[in-house]
Amino acid sequence: MPDRYDDKSRGPRLQRILADAGVAARRVCEQLILDGEVEVNGRLVAKLPAFADPEIDRITVQGRPIKRRSRKVYVMLNKPTNTVTTTADEPDMDRRTVADLVDHPTADRLFPVGRLDFDTTGLLLMTNDGELANKLTHPRFGVVKTYHAVVKGKLSDEDADRIAEGIYLAERKAGRTDGASRTARVEVKVFHRDRDRTILELRLREGRNRQVRRMLASVGCPVKKLERVAMGPVKLKGLPRGGWRELTKGELDGLRKAISRGKGEPEVIRKKTSKKTSKATTKKSSSKRTRRDEEVQVSIVDKKRIKSAVARSGKKSVKQTGARRYDGGSGR
Description:
Blueprint: H1 14-20, H2 26-34, E1 38-40, E2 43-44, E3 59-61, E4 64-65, E5 74-79, H3 98-101, E6 111-112, E7 121-127, H4 130-137, E8 145-152, H5 157-165, E9 168-173, E10 176-182, E11 187-193, E12 197-204, H6 211-218, E13 223-231, E14 234-235, E15 243-246, H7 249-261, E16 269-270, H8 275-283, H9 288-293, E17 295-296, H10 303-312, E18 324-325
Parallel strand pairs: 7-13, 15-18
Antiparallel strand pairs: 1-2, 1-3, 3-4, 5-7, 5-15, 6-7, 8-12, 8-13, 9-10, 11-12, 13-14, 16-17
Helix pairs in contact: 1-2
């Protein structure tokens, strides 16, 4: 092995090794290194970048050796409402966390990939693989997150176009509003619309704080129910609310391919039209709505699920309790 710890050939970044071992969040681990709290093979490492091999090097923090890296684990959780997407809640809050629901027998520390709001349900990935988690959530890799929303009021075509083109949302830094920026393009598909409610699907490539709720509220359609149904090619299926299972090899390979391609959505299928329909469409091509209808996005969720969402949208949700591991249909 090279003698220098700033040599990339040694292995992963030192702060990532510490974070994967459960020492602290990556930013905190960086500060521990700069503060002179970390040694590798008995040598103080206090500069960044620094690299090491967790399988070979002996790494200590404040004199105590870190745990050896465990097997990489990838879990899908069907997150219920009234659950915080974090590994530990704030002091004195005593709320249920996603870590309380996933009791994996071989992984002592799994962290959520991205966040879902307290009242948002659906697909949440959890893992101890920090590198994959970062790529899945970073907008540069463009992995699509798909949501189904039930909103109050009738969402017009014009407002759907506004959301699709991008909405200006305020940005906050250090607890203060610091300007506003436009959201990236969003794919919008309306499933059901009546006077009192609209059910729709949204696909995002970024993940700002409460982004879906804020976008829909800005056009006068506050969210009543929100569920994430897919991340890239991985769909939420076969899991009861509050249940979890490990990802299959096929699902994991699909996520990695989505990252390498820089996109995670299904292919766009063009709608076949007759000559008469084609001429009529050409005459209206200046309309934003018509341009959006020329390409029909295939929903990532089957029609039965959409009909079920329509049927349930007016009913109160059943309180979910307990954590359940669900092994049906999964395999390693």
